Amino acid sequence: MHRTFYPADRPPLTVQSGRGWHYTSLAALSSIASSQELWATSWRATNDRTEVHHGLEALSQAWNHYGQENSLADRTRQLLDEAGPFGSYADSFEHVNILCAARERDSPYQWNAYAAGPEGVAIGLNLGTELVTDVDDRPRRHNDAELFGMQWLKVIYTDRQKHMAAARFVAEMDTSIREGAPMEVSDFRALNLLTALNFKHPAFRHEKEARCVCLSDGVELQAMPANLQKTIVPWKGLPVRATPPTAERLPLPIVEVIASPWATEATVEDITRCLADAGMATVPVARSELPFR
């Protein structure tokens, strides 16, 4: 698929290979497998009360430092002024939704935090498969409505990594704008916000997270018609006016499912049956190797 080359689209900010593990319940797996949908969570509902704000603060500091050391392009300075306070960027979008996956297979923390009990599962996802609807990672407009996404982003936790990533993003953004890249205020806010969502408080570093993010502005979302979408949907619904062409739908990139450390034989059988009923009988089911009681 086409990928627009934005300053945000660079390692280590994007993940384009490997596996991620979405820890959840057997009931959720059944819903995901049968609907072939992965639903993201609003940033306001995550367990990190500094979500978004922590990253935006890091970017605000990076922009201030870069502006003091360098002469910003006139258009960059104009965009910074028009975009308003960094802390308000998320409020410019009606929906900021996040789909999380841990980079660690069979993680003790993830089991305890997100999939405890005999019916917990870890869904292994191929991070080399992008999660898109009819919207690629360019802004897509309908009158004043916009959607932004979707890439797997690598979350970084250390101050040094954040400083380096933010400094590079800011410098490349200013250079890109100086060289004439088209950039509206909504684009500017979105790219900064997407980058900010790479940064989390170091207290969460054990999660080793990758995440997929969707931003939408002025777009009314609705439940996705299951017989219309040709790829998978990582957030809640489609824009009302964006109707994708009818096409065969690609399967979710589930490469393995792990049963929790507390799973019974009956639970493992239920997981296997759930996948088979969804036409995913070839997906292997493994048991956790952790010796939890």
From TrEMBL:
InterPro entries for the chain: DUF2971
Source domain of life: Bacteria
Protein name: DUF2971 domain-containing protein
Organism listed in the record: Kocuria aegyptia
